[in-house]
Amino acid sequence: MVTEQLVDLSRLQFAATAMYHFLFVPLTLGMVWLLVIMESAWVMTGKLIYKDMTRFWGKLFGINFALGVTTGITLEFQFGTNWAYYSHYVGDIFGAPLAIEGLMAFFLESTFIGLFFFGWERLSRKQHLMVTVLMAVGTNLSALWILVANGWMQHPVGAEFSFETMRMELTDFWAVLFNPDAQAKFVHTVSAGYVTGAMFVLSISSWYLLRRRDLEFARRSFSIAAAFGFASVCSVIVLGDESGYVVSEAQQTKLAAMEAMWETEPAPASFNLIAFPNEAEMKNDYALHIPWVMGLLGTRSLDQEMPGIRDIVARNRERVETGVDAVRLLEALRADPANADLRTRFDAVKDDLGFGLLLKKYVASMDEVTPELMDRAARDTIPKVAPLFWSFRLMVALGFALLALFGLALWHSVKGDFERKPWLLRWALWFLPMPWIACELGWFVAEYGRQPWTIYGVLPTHLSVSTLSVESLYGSLAGFVGFYTLLLVVEMYLMVRFARQGPGSLGTGRYTNEQHGETAPA
Amino acid sequence: MILDYPTLKLVWWLLVGVLLVGFAIMDGHDMGVGTLLPFVGKDDTERRVVINTVGPHWDGNQVWFITGGGAIFAAWPIVYATAFSGFYWAMLAVLWALFFRPVGFDYRSKIHHPVWRSTWDWGLFVGGFVPPLIFGVAFGNLLQGVPFHFDDTLVPYYTGSFWGLLNPFALLCGVVSSAMITLQGAVYLMHRTEGEVYERTRKAMLGAGLVLLAGFTAAGIWVQAIPGYVIASAIDPSALPNPQAKEVVREAGAWMANYRAMPATLLVPALAYLGVAAALWLAWRGRTLAAFVASSLGIVGVIGTAGVSMFPFVMPSISAPDASLTVWDAVSSHLTLTIMFWATLIFMPLIVAYTSWAYKVMAGKVTAAYVRENEHSAY
Description:
The complex is a heterodimer.
Chain A: H1 4-21, H2 25-45, H3 48-82, H4 84-118, H5 125-154, E1 159-162, E2 167-170, H6 173-177, H7 180-210, H8 215-250, H9 252-258, E3 271-278, E4 283-290, H10 293-299, H11 309-335, H12 340-349, H13 353-357, H14 371-380, H15 385-415, H16 422-430, H17 434-448, E5 453-455, E6 459-460, H18 461-464, H19 470-501
Antiparallel strand pairs in A: 1-2, 3-4, 5-6
Chain B: H1 5-40, H2 44-54, H3 58-75, H4 77-86, H5 88-98, H6 100-107, H7 114-144, E1 148-150, E2 156-158, H8 168-192, H9 195-223, E3 227-231, E4 248-252, H10 257-261, H11 267-284, H12 288-310, E5 313-315, E6 325-326, H13 334-361, H14 368-373
Antiparallel strand pairs in B: 1-2, 3-4, 5-6
Helix pairs in contact in B: 1-2, 1-3, 1-7, 1-8, 1-12, 1-13, 3-4, 3-13, 5-7, 6-7, 7-8, 8-9, 8-12, 9-11, 11-12
C-alpha cells in the first residue's frame, strides 16, 4: 500500500543519497581538468614541479573519487529498489542514457584512472598525458549522459505514452539527446564542477602561502586555479542564465515558484529581489521589485508575458479535468484494446493523462473525484515557493561572490603580488565550502522545483515509488545515514591529513613534511 | 541493418548474458582476489602485493556491473523494476558490501596503522565475497520462481520476505557462484604473484574449483526435481510486450526441456565442466594465463547453463505464474532495443581494446620489491 509516509521517506532517501553523491562529483569534474593542465605543463616544460603538482593534487582527487564511485552506484540501484513504477513507466527512455553512460563514459574514466595512478613509471610522458585526458573526457561525458537523463525528467521530449505497454516509449532518441533542457543543464553543471575544483586548489594553496611553506608549489597551483576558476565561474553565470531561460519555456511552474510570481504581470515583468511568500493566500507579504528585469531575463523580450502562479493553476485545473477523462478512457481501452473509437478519444486527451494521475494521490478510482479534489490537484502542481525562492537567490549570490573572488585572484596573480595579499588568501581559504553549497542549492532548486512530478507533467511522484513497507524504508534510510556518516568522517580525515602534509606526502625529498604522517609545523 | 523486433528481443537476451559473463570474468576476478586477500596474504607486504595485482584495474572492472545494471534498466525495464524492488534487502546488502571496495582500495595503505589496514582488508573481503554470493542466491531463487504479481496498471508487488530467499537450493547456487568467482580470482592472482602468496593461492584455487564442480553437479541434479516453468499459450515474439497476456504452468523437470528440444545446447553445461577442469589442471601446472582463459570459459558455461535452462524466462513468478517475465514480454520498445544494440556494438569492442591495453601496460608479477619501491603511490 502506497502511503504518503512511504512516498516521503522514499523521497528523503533519494534526496539524501543524491545530494551526498554530489559532494564528490563536482570536485571530480573540475579537478580532472586542472590535472590535465598541470600535466600538460609538465610535458611541455619538463619542469618537475608540474609533475609533482599533478601527483599531489591527483592524490587528493583520488581520495575524493573513491567516494564518488561508492555513492554513485547507490543512485543507479535506487531507481529500481525504491522507484520501481518509475523504472517501469519510463525505463524505455530513461534507462538508455544510463546504460550508454556506462558504455561510453564510465568505462573510459574508470579504466584510465587506474593508469593515471599506477602508470607513471610504465608510460611515456605523452602516453600518460593522454591517459589523463581520456580520464577527463570520460568524467565529463559521464556527466553529459546523466544530465541527458535528468533533463528528460524535467522536459520529457521525444517520447509518447503507449496504452498497450502502459508506459512511456521512445519515439525520437535525438530529441532526448539534444533536449535543450539537458544541454543547458549539462554545461551549467560541469562549469559549476570546474569552479569547485578551482576553489579547492585555490583554497589549499592559499593556506600554504599563508603558512609560508612549499611556496613555489603553492604559487603555481594558485595561479592555475585562479585562471581556470575565473573562466569557469563566468561560464557558470552565463550558462546559468541560459538554463533559466530554458526553464522559463519548459517549466513555467518551477520558474514562477522560484521567482514568487503569483500574478501575471504586464510585460516585461519585474524581478523580486526579496520577497516573503505567503502560500495560503497566494501572495507575497512583502516584495522588493526591480522593474523589467524578470521579463528581460525570462523571455529575452520586452513584450512577452510570463504567467504567474494563479494563472498557471487555473490553466492546470483544466488539464486536470481533461486528465480525469484520459485516465477513464485508458482504463476502458486497456479492457478493450481493439476499440478504435476509444483509441481516438484517448489519443485526443492523452497529453493530459499525467494531470489525471495526480488525483491518484487522493482517490483510487476516478469515480470518486470531486471538483474540490480537482482544485487541490491543480494547486499541487505548484511546488512550495519560499524554499525555491530563497535557495535560488542564495545560489546566485554565491555565484557572484565567487566571481569577485576569482576575478581578484586572477588580477593579483597576473600582477604577481597575491602572496602579499593576506586578505585575499584568507578569503580564498574560508570560501572553500561555498561552491559545494551553491551546487547543492542548484540541485535543490532543479529537483524540488520539479515537484509534484518525477517526470514533469507525465508521472506524479507519489505514483513512482516501489510498493515497499515503511519499515523497510526506515531501515534502509538508517543504513545509508550510518554508512555515509562513517565514510564522510574517514574521507574528511584523510583529506585534511594529506592536505596538511602537502606535497611532502609524495616522498620526493623536495618539500616540507616529508616524513610520512607528520603534520604541518605550527 | 535494421533488426526486427523478435530478433532484437533474442539478441538482448544474449547481450545481457554477455554483460553478466563480462562482469563475472572481469569484476569477478578482482572480487575473487578480495575474497582470498585475508587468507593468502599473511603480513602487510603480502597483502599489498595481493591488492596491487588488481589495484589499477578494479575500478574499470566494476563498470561491468554498473553497465549490466544500466543495460537491464534500458532493455528489460520491468525486470529491473521488479527484481530490484522485490529483492530490496538483498540488493542493499550487495550495495553496502560494494561500498567497501573503492574506499578499501584507495584508503587502506594511506595510513600506517595495523588496525586501520586490517579493517580495510576485511572490508575488501566483504566487498569481494558478499556480492557474488548474493547473486548466486538470487539466481537460485529465479530458478524456483519469485513471489510477485502486477496490478492492472503494471505496478509490481513483491510478496516474499528477505529470509525466504535463503532457502537450501538458493544457498547451493550461492556456493556455486562464490566458488566460481573465487576460482577466477585465484587463477588471476597466481598469474600475477610468486612465492608464498602464489603457493597459498594455488591450494585455494584447487579447493574453490573442486567445490565449484561438486556444487554445479549437485545443483544440476537438484534442478531436475524442482518445478520449472513453461509457457502454455501461443507465443507471438513480435507482439508488444505485455507480461500479463500469457498462460504459464509449473512442471517438474521443465528446466530440462530446452536441452531435450535442442540437444546441442548440452554443450553449454559441458563447457562449464571442461572450462573449470582445464583451469584446474593448467593452473596447477603453472600455466596461469591459459588457466585464466579456461576459467573464463567455465564462467560462460555456468552462467550460460542457468540462462539456457530458464529460456525464455527471465524472472518467473511462483505466486502468479502468468505474470512471469520473459524475453518476449519484459522488454523495451523496438526503437530502444535498436539504439542500445548499436551503442553496445560500437562501444563494447572499444572497451575490450583499451582494457586490454591497460592490462598490458601493467603486466608482470607484483612483488614485495614493487610495493616497497612505490611506498607512497601503490595501494
